[in-house]
Amino acid sequence: MAAVAGGALRAAAAAAGGPRRRRRMRRRRKGKAVRARCGPCARSRRGLPDPADTRSPRRDDLLSSGFWAASAGECGERGVGTLGTASPGGAAALTPPPAGAVRAPLSGPAEPPARCVCYGLGRFGRCPAARYQLAFLLLLLDELRVPLARCALFDPAFSAREAAVLRALGLCLLPENEEGKHGIEGSATLFYMVHCGKALYNNLLWSNWSPAALSKLVIIGNSFRGIEERLLSRILERDYSYIAKVLKGVEEVALPSHPRYLDTFNDTSVHWFPLDKLQELSPEVWDCVEEPMYQDCEDLEIIRKGEGPTV
């Protein structure tokens, strides 16, 4: 009864205040609603991460687990404490490469990358694995001293809000779907392509099909060795001929395995192409430069230019 009476009194008071009072109350309620929709909590409810969220919790997880330290070679060179403190359980779970996969391409005379291109990051507003991949990319750019403004991304699945988050982080967006056909034009470039389709890697190789250009590429993506092992040789040579032809000219180091990131970075390796190995390949390897068409490919695994993403 008291609650009913209280409600009646409030209604009577509002009515007594007249239209002007009711308009003021509606404006106050509307202002609160707008602030709620625009705050960090609302951004999380919509599935869109706050820009700081991709830098902080996921970044901290990658550091504290020891995964980043093992990937970058921190364990053996500068110590884990430089970038984060690995827990004993996290460090013991790793199987790190000797020098760190991220630094392996720079152990020789290779030119360090001056820019980065990222394909296929995915819907990081919805997918936790994609958010970890984005956090790893940001750590990678910092480690290799590639300015954020010199990193361009494309995924046809990006929403307008996700694109806005990437711009807020200081990253750039490629204006159109290149299908991986990105020529480096003489600039040493890192390509970050975790879990992309085989055709994207094949197109990228075709676009830079010369020893001089390939020697300036570093690709972080699906293991070329794994692709070779899983595909029949006739299909690899027919559909992905540039991957097939470069297998003897590529060096590859897998990212460390970690139980927390099995679905996030599984089958991911760092690839680079030493100039001396490329020059040892048969001259005929470089003669055929036909653009890949994939007419007989049953499962292309990429979104073609002009197509939209499947929901």
Automatic annotation (TrEMBL):
<dbReference type="GO" id="GO:0005737">
    <property type="term" value="C:cytoplasm"/>
</dbReference>
<protein>
    <submittedName>
        <fullName>SRR1 domain containing</fullName>
    </submittedName>
</protein>
<feature type="region of interest" description="Disordered">
    <location>
        <begin position="1"/>
        <end position="60"/>
    </location>
</feature>
<comment type="similarity">
    <text>Belongs to the SRR1 family.</text>
</comment>
<dbReference type="InterPro" id="IPR040044">
    <property type="entry name" value="SRR1L"/>
</dbReference>
<feature type="domain" description="SRR1-like">
    <location>
        <begin position="111"/>
        <end position="272"/>
    </location>
</feature>
<dbReference type="GO" id="GO:0005634">
    <property type="term" value="C:nucleus"/>
</dbReference>
<feature type="compositionally biased region" description="Low complexity">
    <location>
        <begin position="1"/>
        <end position="18"/>
    </location>
</feature>
<feature type="compositionally biased region" description="Basic residues">
    <location>
        <begin position="19"/>
        <end position="35"/>
    </location>
</feature>
<dbReference type="Pfam" id="PF07985">
    <property type="entry name" value="SRR1"/>
</dbReference>
<dbReference type="InterPro" id="IPR012942">
    <property type="entry name" value="SRR1-like"/>
</dbReference>
